[in-house]
Amino acid sequence: MRPRNYKKYTLMSALTKLKADIAKAIKKLTGQEVEPKTLTLSSTRKEFEGDYTLLVFPLARYFGKSPEEVGKLIGEELKASSTVVDDYNTIKGFLNLSFAPEYWTDTLTAINTTENFGKGAPKDKRVMVEFSSPNTNKPLHLGHIRNILLGWSVSKIMDAAGYEVITTQVVNDRGIAICKSMLAWEKWGDGITPENSGKKGDFLVGDFYVKFNTEFSKEYSDWQTSKEAEAVFKNQNEIQDKAKFFDEYKNNYFNEYSKLGSEARQMLLKWENKESETMELWKNMNSWVLNGFDQTYDKLGVHFTKSYFESDTYILGRSIVEEGLKKGVFYKEKDGSIWVDLTDANMDKKIVLRSDGTSLYITQDIGTAELRYKDFNTEKMIYVVGDEQEYHFKVLFEILKRLERPYASDMYHLSYGMVELPTGKMKSREGKVVDADDLINQMTLEARANAEEKGIIDGSSDKERNEIYRKIGMAALKFFILKVNPKRRMIFNPEESVDLQGQTGPYIQNAYVRIKSIMRKAEGTYDFNDISGYKDFNSHEKNLITTLSSYPNTIQQAAEEYEPSAIANYVYDLAKKYHKYYSEIRILGTEDKSARNFRLALSYSVAQILKSGMDLLGIEMPERM
Length: 625
What we know:
Layout: H1 11-30, E1 41-43, E2 52-55, H2 60-63, H3 67-81, E3 85-91, E4 94-99, H4 101-113, E5 126-130, H5 142-160, E6 164-171, H6 176-188, H7 194-197, H8 201-223, H9 227-234, H10 242-248, H11 250-256, H12 259-272, H13 276-300, E7 306-309, H14 310-313, H15 318-327, E8 331-332, E9 338-341, E10 349-353, H16 361-376, E11 380-386, H17 390-402, E12 411-416, E13 419-420, H18 436-454, H19 462-482, E14 490-491, H20 494-497, H21 505-522, H22 539-549, H23 551-561, H24 564-584, H25 593-616
Parallel strand pairs: 5-6, 5-11, 6-7, 11-12, 13-14
Antiparallel strand pairs: 1-2, 2-4, 3-4, 8-9, 9-10
Helix pairs in contact: 1-3, 4-22, 4-25, 5-23, 6-8, 6-12, 8-13, 11-12, 15-16, 18-19, 21-24, 21-25, 22-24, 22-25, 23-24, 24-25
């Protein structure tokens, strides 16, 4: 039976309307006001008839009747007055409500005919997402990949939610670590370059960073047997175990006794004094690394609106500190250093400018935030940085609030846990890392091996197959990392990530490819405008439409919570439901024309949303597998 004054609603607006109708029914029947948002609606359990179930028990007090009687009263009123309810039944304290058949077909049509379905209306608010922020002394590695994929996905989700998004990175291109690579190249490089060696620039510079630390470790090991080292050990009273003492003394040795340490510090002073040869070497080696980074970003499908460089920003923030000193936000110690007292905010006292007037990281971040606000007028700033920096960002945000910066009220640190391999942690100084490029290549090889073993790619040229392997491999990598809540530490398992049966990127791609194959077979034999005659909806179809209709809300929620895993879980759930639908329901084989049209329209819609959702994770979909 078609409800009175039936209108077309998407599912979320229908549920909103349904709650409002229930509240009106209660008001009419009892005179009592009930907030629609307090009503509890859930999907009806499979063993009962209906689409959504209202929990009646909390409402019985308004009626002074049993929950079952209350359910019948509300059901009759809704059946008579609601524009979305078609029928009802009651089971004890539960009111099961059924939507009209037209609701399901109209909702599917609305999804299929809405351009960019799921994307939010423009919010007239500009958001900056900062991520990656690597050092120019080594290649990007697995840890960077988690950062980059999180940042890029969050930027795409925020864009889909209706924000204008600016993506940035701060490249750490100065300091003692950079000088270590430069010094090692000077001492042992023999003029090698990416051009004359054929080696990717960031890998080449990374080799010299490892070389420096290898040579430094040898130097330190030799020094430990010297009379000077013996005297240093005897002159301390805290640690009796010599091995333990020298393990902890390494940084002191670098700064006080090491020849290599002294040479690296001298190079840093030359850089700070803009000595021409040092600056030329620094520019060359940085350009090698930055070119290598760009190649890796291209492989990951990532780009930045603007890159900032620490060599430009490290002097920023001083003028703001002076301003804060005048306002009383900061105070000066006897030695001339400037501090902020955050004890009233459950933090400690924090130095913001050294006695010699030089900046610290917090000073730079204050200045960089101000610079980016001036550059882009960003009203919201999201920093994607590891969880070891949580305290730093609490301090930064509190300082900016006290400085009354216009952007200070909407800043967020998206912290994430460490990512490891099944073999354990990585160590950059020792070269025991999984470089991003190597991992990307490995994932493509994993995808190739998996596909060839199963024989799932046929009838394609070598070029087409290689492109498919790349898309599968990148989907495996990206989905495996993004499906995990950022706060959690994780272990990345390459072999597990390419499984076509698990909660993986390739599993979702397979659902999409399956639908594309169906649509190719049905080409020219269906009409999406002719689905209104279909009435015999099964639970799979209702579940799929319900899931599809929740896509806009899922995007908004993921944007509010900065949570790519919400999108990953959504597309996995949708793909899983479609795989089950495909295995149990005849799509092309049904003889009912309206059923065939409806099921093809539903399949098409699932494919579109799978593609859209995976795109928010930075994942491409192949047309064939």
